[in-house]
Amino acid sequence: MQIRGMFITFEGPDGAGKTTQIGLLSQYLSRRGMAVVTTREPGGTPLGDDIRRILLDVKYKGMDPRAETLLYLAARAQHAATVIRPALAEGRIILSDRFADSTLAYQGAARALAAAEVAAANEFATAGLIPDLTILLDGDPAELQTRRQRRGAGDRIEAEAIAFHRRVRTGFLQLAGKEPDRFRIINALDSVETINSQIVCYIDEFLHRREKQ
Ligand SMILES: Nc1ncnc2c1ncn2[C@@H]1O[C@H](COP(=O)(O)OP(=O)(O)OP(=O)(O)O)[C@@H](O)[C@H]1O
Ligand SMILES: [Mg+2]
């Protein structure tokens, strides 16, 4: 039998709980004997981590949106080619903290770059790689901001005005509306445990459905 990997992405606003939930899901899947790879964007590779530092540095406040997009995409191209695709080929389950949908929501919807152009650029960067499943942690930006502020000084993107974060949220919800088979929307304001069990249900359902194919 051919081994089949699975590419799962976690999306949502800053502070929505992506990193927390990836950690829990990774433990759950590992306990079940699955080969899991956790990774993040921007980052996931040495080149990507260097680009991440530039992207989040407050000294680049006001960075041109197209320059910003291309930096994210450069990091993503390296990530897709050298981490995600090889892991998928080995039949692993990849859990990525953000991926292409973040660029559509942040640079497309929130910075008002043309959606079709950003989508085409994503496709170029990833050579057409699309997640099997995307968990969208959705919540009111004002409430999530309070959660983030408890954590101390934010990065360049977190420092954007609340209106920006509202556009990000709307952008994500629109993407989910367009691809209901790939997206699962979860209320980010629920408890860590509730969210974890919902995610586990979605993953089990997906794996079960795929076994039958
Ligand atoms: N469901 C939850 N309820 C309350 N607090 C939570 C919940 N999930 C995560 N947190 C807390 O909120 C903060 C942000 O969580 P986390 O770092 O997982 O979010 P994130 O989406 O990865 O954020 P970022 O985009 O900034 O990396 C952390 O302090 C975390 O402990
Ligand atoms: Mg995080």
UniProtKB/TrEMBL annotation:
<dbReference type="GO" id="GO:0006235">
    <property type="term" value="P:dTTP biosynthetic process"/>
</dbReference>
<feature type="binding site">
    <location>
        <begin position="12"/>
        <end position="19"/>
    </location>
    <ligand>
        <name>ATP</name>
    </ligand>
</feature>
<dbReference type="GO" id="GO:0006227">
    <property type="term" value="P:dUDP biosynthetic process"/>
</dbReference>
<keyword id="KW-0808">Transferase</keyword>
<feature type="domain" description="Thymidylate kinase-like">
    <location>
        <begin position="10"/>
        <end position="199"/>
    </location>
</feature>
<keyword id="KW-0547">Nucleotide-binding</keyword>
<keyword id="KW-0418">Kinase</keyword>
<dbReference type="GO" id="GO:0005829">
    <property type="term" value="C:cytosol"/>
</dbReference>
<dbReference type="InterPro" id="IPR018095">
    <property type="entry name" value="Thymidylate_kin_CS"/>
</dbReference>
<dbReference type="Pfam" id="PF02223">
    <property type="entry name" value="Thymidylate_kin"/>
</dbReference>
<dbReference type="InterPro" id="IPR039430">
    <property type="entry name" value="Thymidylate_kin-like_dom"/>
</dbReference>
<dbReference type="InterPro" id="IPR018094">
    <property type="entry name" value="Thymidylate_kinase"/>
</dbReference>
<dbReference type="GO" id="GO:0006233">
    <property type="term" value="P:dTDP biosynthetic process"/>
</dbReference>
<dbReference type="GO" id="GO:0005524">
    <property type="term" value="F:ATP binding"/>
</dbReference>
<keyword id="KW-0545">Nucleotide biosynthesis</keyword>
<keyword id="KW-0067">ATP-binding</keyword>
<comment type="similarity">
    <text>Belongs to the thymidylate kinase family.</text>
</comment>
<protein>
    <recommendedName>
        <fullName>Thymidylate kinase</fullName>
        <ecNumber>2.7.4.9</ecNumber>
    </recommendedName>
</protein>
<dbReference type="GO" id="GO:0004798">
    <property type="term" value="F:dTMP kinase activity"/>
</dbReference>
<dbReference type="InterPro" id="IPR027417">
    <property type="entry name" value="P-loop_NTPase"/>
</dbReference>
<comment type="function">
    <text>Phosphorylation of dTMP to form dTDP in both de novo and salvage pathways of dTTP synthesis.</text>
</comment>
